[in-house]
Amino acid sequence: EGSRNKIHGQLPANPGGPSLYRLRLCLITRFSGLAGSTCNRNQDMSRSVKTVLVIYKADHEQARSMAWTVAEWLAARGVICLVRENLPDAAHVVVPAGEAVTGPPDLALVLGGDGTYIGVARICLGLGIPLLGLNLGRVGFLAEGAVNWQQRLEDLLAGRYGLSRRICLSY
């Protein structure tokens, strides 16, 4: 893995060269006792990403704008996106328009800070949907920096990522 700027969560720029880091997705599963954790959905992380749920921080103009930019960027690469604000009753919009979504998304992309990431993790808890956070806050411990997001998503689409499993105690 490449060196990370621990304060801002940013990775060094790498114009045109091979990736200096390994993208990490996080799969949140419910704690099932001392023996370990289980997942309700057996997801093969070597398969390609076809559908992405893009959730952005509520009432945050930069996050909303970036959500639409990212969704259009992904759609141009053949990925269907479900875009929604991180509110309990928010509707989602399918990008590109008119595409049919027949199953759960392959990934939840969270745009915001660590608080938004934790809120989305609660929603996705036990569903087996891995999370990738792009931090738009000041300091990010859970989400990746939003700088060079295109390269991060290119790596994701090319299968250059790892899966980090996390557990959550029931509350």
Structure, explained:
- With 171 residues, the chain is an alpha/beta fold.
- It has helices spanning 61-75, 114-124, 149-157, and strands spanning 23-30, 51-56, 80-85, 93-95, 107-112, 131-135, 144-145, 161-168.
- It has a six-stranded mixed beta sheet, sandwiched between helices. The chain has a two-stranded parallel ribbon with strand order 1-8.
- A hairpin with a 7-residue loop joins strand 3 and strand 4 (93-95).
- The termini are far apart.
- Residues 1-22 and 29-46 have low confidence and may be disordered.
Contiguous helical run count? 3
Question: How would you sum up the global shape?
Answer: globular
User: What is the H-and-E element order?
Assistant: EEHEEEHEEHE
Overall mean pLDDT score? 75
- Poorly predicted runs are 1-22, 29-46
Strand order of the largest sheet: 4-3-2-5-6-7
Question: What's the SSE blueprint?
Answer:
Blueprint: E1 23-30, E2 51-56, H1 61-75, E3 80-85, E4 93-95, E5 107-112, H2 114-124, E6 131-135, E7 144-145, H3 149-157, E8 161-168
Parallel strand pairs: 1-8, 2-3, 2-5, 5-6, 6-7
Antiparallel strand pairs: 3-4
